[in-house]
Amino acid sequence: MNKNILQQNYYQLFDLPQSFMLDMTALKSKMRTLQQEYHPDNFANDSELSTLALSISSYINHAYNTLLNPLTRAIYLLELAKIAVDLVHDTKFTPEFLLKQIELRESIEEAESASDIDALEEIEQQLKDEADNLVVTINQYFAVQQYNEIIELIKQLSFYDKLLQVVDRTLSNL
Amino acid sequence: MALLQIAEPDLSGNPHQHNIAIGIDLGTTNSLVATVRSGEATVLVNHDGCKLIPSIVNYGKETQIGSQAATLRSTDPSNTIVSVKRFMGRSFADLDTTIRYPYKFVNSSGLIQIDTAQGVKNPVEVSADILRYLRNMAVEALGEEPTGVVITVPAYFDDAQRQATRQAGELAGLNVLRLLNEPTAAAIAYGLDSKNEGTFLVYDLGGGTLDVSILSLTKGVFEVLAVGGDTHLGGDDFDHRLSCYIMEKAGLSQLNDEDSAILLINAKKIKEQLSQSEKASFSVVLSTKRLVNFVITRTEYENLVRHLVQKTLLPVKKALRDAKLDKDQIDEVIMVGGSTRMLLVRQMVGELFGREPLTSINPDEVVAIGASIQADVLVGNKKDDWLLLDVTPLSLGVETMGGLVEKIIPRNSTLPIARAQDFTTYKDGQTAMTVHVVQGERELVKDCRSLAKFTLRGIPQMVAGQARIRITYQIDADGLLSVSAKEMMTGVTSSIEVKPSFGLSDEQIGAMLQESISNANHDMQVRLYQEAVVDAQALIDSVEKALYLDADLLTEEELSQINNAIMKLKITLAKAPDDYAQLTNKIKQQTDDLNQISSNFANRRMDKAIHHALSGRDINEVADKI
Hints:
Chain A has about 170 residues and is mainly alpha-helical. Chain A has helices at about 10-15, 25-40, 45-70, 70-80, 95-115, 115-145, 145-174. Chain B is an alpha+beta fold.
């Protein structure tokens, strides 16, 4: 078993070019190939190897999830470029953006208290569209390595990510 | 350990030797064992020719298991344990008080135990007895001890329930290769049967629970995309609804236990008959000599329970959401569990997906069959290998300020998975911190299941915020959690590891932590000494702080006893160590003494704190003071 796999970055691990645009089909199929090799079930009768396999297999899953989601993928790419993103403390936004977020939250709460599933699904679609637009723009900035702009967009994308989670939870509970 | 008694598989013999692998469906009502023989999965039978072994154990004069135990249910109810699966990994406080059990329950430091004619038994031991019976069935049928076994568990089982199941397997002398989720096992049975690629939805409706899983099979990899369900919805609810209807029709009210049971049994029979015929009836004499005649048509019955079937479709829709799939992206729907024999269930599930659900494999056997196929792969018998990627059914989190849960690993994450979290101290000189790990989807700790609470001690004294402690949560392929904590400081790195088991006391977990401490750089004895010093100091600090706040809760005599014990310990701590082991023992002894002497004091403070909390004080404020 190749222990060095734990030293590889996520792109090296899946043998994919280090870019924001990603071939999702290739990512999925590489993940499966790697898991077929390293999943602890392959070593069910060998406790030492299966312990090592457990950490490698966990690493593969974590790497996969990170690259699968555009938000975590963008943050990871910046990390590789030694640029830190502080989503917790960096909360500077334009007033327009904040206002829009407040409006969105209010409309979610309104739909929730009215148990209006159609309205929530509509909001969900709207949020997804907005997030998709951000991802397209992030991709353009990655092409020209404009990292400051990317950080601003990542902050916005994480807002949409959170809102989507809220809507998802609300819909699940209704 | 029972595990050591297993004979090694004979490696010296024929290199192409076939390893015997079995799959066990350890069910609430019935259990089954299956194996793969010449490429074909078969359910094994016992000497009476039965496949379905009632999950019942009688601890009378002798231990009886299965149908023999079932016959003793009415004559010896207090020693005849049924549905032990409901007690696995549960605490005494979890016991459903609305159900009248015939057992003598024993509360063993929070865990459920049952007093029988053969002494006190815990659920793990009872399950182990069932597993041992199944193992013997396999040995009789196959003429050999199985090399490895896969045991199935409901997908919604939490960590404690999984740990308990694994322990039962080991106690029965089995080499448990894997715990497998029941719906996943069913999908394996169908998926590999039809050699299909695609996306499957498994709808598993048992007597008491509904389990839903969505899986995809692509190029030899089975990937679970989402799991969900309802732990309080199953065939029993249908019987209950019907028996209420019978009472209504017959003008009965307020039945005694015996008559309620009679009606329920008949309701169940009627439900089963209506899966075959358009009309069903019964007539029975109650204990009150009252004769009940009852006739019902299938349509009438279906109108009665339609809302219940409707309710089962909600978790199905939720699982689809979680898997981010539309219902027309599901290629096959698989039906599992005895309750899916109901025609209305098949019909309504079929309508939702616009296709006929798969029912070709016996719904009682399909789980055991899938488990045996997976076991066969794990022992290395299968040439065209395939892999199973399962997910965690419940989110994992830790307690944060104010009793809130911070999610660390979200539900439906592919296994295995590891997540690390860094903590720091919030007080100068803080030497210990408590980590509380919970499982569940709710936002408050009290609404989730507590998995482990342990105190990490021995953090070197530093300015607040300087120490860095990394805690790693690892969930393995079985869905079992282990937590490790590492202090990361200049030069010194010590790590501890804990496999939490539900219901362990703090002392036990403390002992486990101590046992597993490993550090090659430091002399063991020096480290033990340092730890004893830190523990002693921590105890002195907390007792002194408590005395400062609440000395009025003590009599003068008690106060002087505590002060004496503190003084003794302080003197010992001040001594320069030459024989580490000896001094360590002395410190430990005196720490224990102080602990014992002050334990009443601690109890009284706890009462006081609870009293305060109940009278409307902020619970966090109280917790801080304890």
